[in-house]
Amino acid sequence: MYKLCILSFLYCMLSGCKENENPDLIVYNAVVYTADSIKPTVEAFSIKNGKILETGHYEWIIKSKGNKTQLIDAKGRFIMPGLYEGHGHLLSLGSSLYNIDLLDVKSWDELVQKVKSSLDTIPPGIWIEGRGWHQDKWHSKLFQTFNGYPYHDELSKISPNHPIVLYHASGHALLANQKAMDLAGIGAESQAPSGGRIVRDPNGKLTGIFEENAMDIISQNLDESKNNLPDSVSLKLKQAKLSLACNEAIKYGITSFQDAGTNYEDLVWLHEMSRKGLIPIRLNLMMYEDISKIFHKMDSMPIRSYDESMFRSKAIKAYMDGALGSYGAWLWDDYIDNPGIKGQTLVPVEKLDALAAKAKKSNLQLCVHAIGDRANHEVLQIFKNNGVSASDRWRIEHAQHLDTTDLPLFKELGVIASMQAIHCISDAPFVEKRLGKERAQSGAYIWRKLLNKGIHFANGTDVPVERINPFDCIYASVTRKRIDSGFEFYPDQKLTRDEALKSYTIWNAYASFDEQIKGSITPGKFADFIILNRNLLTCTDEEILNTKVEAVYINGLRIK
To answer: What is the pLDDT, as a whole number, of residue 1?
Structure first.
């Protein structure tokens, strides 16, 4: 009887009694970039219960096929891990898709016409909102400017009854028309709050430009108008924007999204939307509130998630300075094209230090926006004072302009340089104008110098500051060339193809403590992958820009 049982067991093994151990899905006949350094490329992989089971040669993988295993012939196409947006703003992306999109506007006249065309469809008194303009990227020069900025007069003329607020592409300045300023009570004697500027020309005339913290004066009135909407209308509007944002992410093969700053109320709402299955992608969010509120809100962090693989919020966002385009980045030396100005701090150093101390005590990841060389230096000193080490994985968001003497401290503390390659080619036309050739060459977007020091690097688009398109960003990473003109910005700092792809997959997963569950096509990790129309390892640089996502899989299930 005993021998019979053994024989029966062996027969069952050989004849497929363990069908439940066979993979659910096998993908073969592919060029698979795994982002796994141990096995960088394979031709096939298998999936079981939403996770990668095996990777390797087709002949080996196919041996595990069962009667119920689904086969996908990739027909030689390129497959890689689902892309991970390393620094973006999800609800702001939705708003940008819903409101007036000014990213591609090439002149002031074009901006005015775009706003004018929206007036007929909006009832009087309703705010007109847009984002994406950047005066340094316009092809034609303005007749009248101050500090390079336009004046509000023409917008005020075409829209006396609609308040207008148009956010700068950087998100660190806005342009308001007269109606918006009137509603905000802005007059000749109005004073800007600390860390902000109401821009007036030498004659005291209001230009309509509000920088950094002064933006709140206008934004508060915009927010109040939204708050006066019926709750049902407000909720539907927010849901519509969320849906637009998620669809846009999936369109470009983004299966994970690191949100770089959402208020606590929206975090809780997004968690509920994710729990209900209304957010198809994986979210990892930083909580951001005004410095006066954030200490109290931190007591509610981290958010206890229903599933941390789909939703996690254990990070805090803070700001040290503003943006280079709006002269807000905090520099050691003056702006070349704005003498006497060194930028500004948005939060006092001592308050940021106190925030860091509480984040460290609460075991929360701290992610600080710092663009100028002085801002980055001060943030690193704050991190050092609070005993930060590599295990904390604290981040500096953007880290665009650095003093190279600070690089050893980046390495010593294990600080992640969370940079956005697309900013380099987007900003290229005005970086030298702001910083001068010497500072631009030695410390602007110095990816290669950071990597050579062994400093962790993360990538992204900062959407909606830039388009969410990851392939434009990958192109920027490997070329440092502007897409429109071919202007090349110090190419010695560019990334290799492998580095660029890792910076959008496994490196971003590391930056959010997720490298054990996603970021590469590796056995045991979630089966998040995308199928593309071209091989990103071998195609020409220019062909990267025309990459199309043909299929998107999350947990081994196709969602596009």
So the answer is: 41
